[in-house]
Amino acid sequence: MDRLTLFGALAGLAVGLSACGNESGGTQPAVEESSSSLPTNLSSSSSSVPESSASVIPGDTSTISYSLKAFEGPFTNPHKGFCVTTGGAWSYSPEWQYAPEGSEKNQAWNIVSHGCGYQRWNKLNPEKGVYDWTELEKLLNAGAAYGKGYGLRVFPYASPMGRKNKYTVESDYDWTPSYVYEAGAKKDYAKMTDGGVEYTLAVPRWDDPIYIQAAKDFAAALAAKYDGDPRLEYIDIRAFGNWGEWHIAHFDGSQMPSDEIEMDMLDYYASLFKKTLLVLPSNGSGNVYRHALSLGIAKRDDGLIATPWREDSLEVAYKAGLPTIGENYSTYAIMLTYDNIIPGGHLRWTPERWKEVIYKSHMTYYVLDQDEHAAFEFYKENKADADSLSKVLGYNFSISKAELVTVTQAADTPDAHETTRALNITVKNTGVAPCFFDIYIVAEFVNGEGEVLEQLGKTIHVPKGTFKDEDVKDFSFSSKISNEQTNVAALPGVSVALSIYESEEAFKKGENPTVKFDNDGLLKNNKLLLKQK
């Protein structure tokens, strides 16, 4: 090989360990290089392989192209995707017919990444300074056993709407601990009409300083216990209003606190939770919403599909670089009965409306349905669309091109030579939102059984928020070996596996990757085995 030809071949290998651009040629944020240290349980060299079986000739250049197609079937990944409502640890028990292994074989769980639901403040915090996490712990552990996280909402209050009993017991809906009132917190008495029956309800006075301090004390205890807990996907800040949704809808005689008080509560939560994602509930709006975004607090909306503008509100959070969380206005069965008349009515659920909401709001998390059967009937009737949208929600990494280029050149002495190997891949985020956490991409040479022989190049670190929806990024993993080392890439039966980790420490410890590429060839350990064309 003459010098000009050699220079051209090596230039193709010099794709930096960075993201080179998108489809339109725009510049992408830099991708950081990480250590090339191998996991402690992997071989850092291939000296145990006979060198004679991997001989190379100076001047050789070879290229291996890999066949790539999308993974078929439903798809889940961490920190994104569909959710089902989970009432307690029993939601995962095989004794419940709609559990993952229940008698109904509820296939909705195949596209679900996490459960979500509410806990009662007075159950978690029955007395001042006393906290009982027992039932919550059971739920979190039950979900974790199935690889499911949990989105937590702690309610101070839950309207008794739909309970046709004029004399509903106050403790059935006021879930603020009794010690808060015993300390002097005031109540308001509000009127609510439901089904033609008028109720008089005792409602916390939301701006009462004793109530506010109690809510902050609970937040501090919750953060001390759960901030950074990997079992928790996010925590809603449910300090005010009916269902803790920052509104007093249906109540005549109750008032929300001032914007200043609401923003102070957001400030306090943000000062406590440094790791777990915080979420502003449905009706946080205006200055309060803007302040939440400035603190890195994400946004939820529980009124989707039925009204035409709610997804626009969520889009604001997406544009601020934060996840969006959505839930329908009501259950699937009820929404099918809506009159589709605006104003004055509600939009009916349709697959087209469902997709419109997800795409417009760039949804990262979506509650599949509110029914108590973990979306069983919904999934049966909408399986194809739900499976497809499982790849649309949040991020979704798909490899469109992969090539292994090997160049061997003469070194300083006549008998010496040096081989450069580079795996060049092109990856697109085909989801509707960025990846909101750091990822670490690893390339490895593996044998026919999938056992790791050697890491190729360095681990590539992609900082959170920099791999946006529709972005296309090029990555290169390269390394050099001398003629005294074995080129495992040239051995029979050797292929390349690609992995995505949430931390480099997990890779070094030999743990399995948690994030999957949306490509055919996924192994049971979540690594992607590249197949030659």
Structure description:
With 533 residues, this protein is α/β, with parallel strands linked by helices. Helices cover 22% and strands 25% of the residues. It contains 13 helices and 21 strands. The chain has helices spanning 3-13, 121-124, 134-145, 178-182, 209-226, 259-272, 286-294, 310-319, 332-335, 351-360, 376-381, 383-389, 504-508; strands spanning 32-33, 61-67, 81-85, 112-120, 149-155, 187-194, 197-204, 232-236, 278-280, 298-304, 324-328, 365-367, 397-410, 417-429, 439-446, 452-455, 460-462, 472-482, 495-501, 528-529, 531-532. The strands form four sheets. The chain has an eight-stranded parallel barrel. Strands 1, 15, 16, 17, 19 and 20 form a six-stranded antiparallel beta sheet that branches. The protein has a five-stranded antiparallel beta sheet with strand order 18-14-13-2-21, covered by helices on one side. Strand 9, helix 7 and strand 10 form a beta-alpha-beta unit. Helix 5 (209-226) packs parallel to helix 6 (259-272) and helix 6 (259-272) runs parallel beside helix 7. It is elongated and about 95 Å long. The model is unreliable at 1-30 and 35-56 (pLDDT under 50).
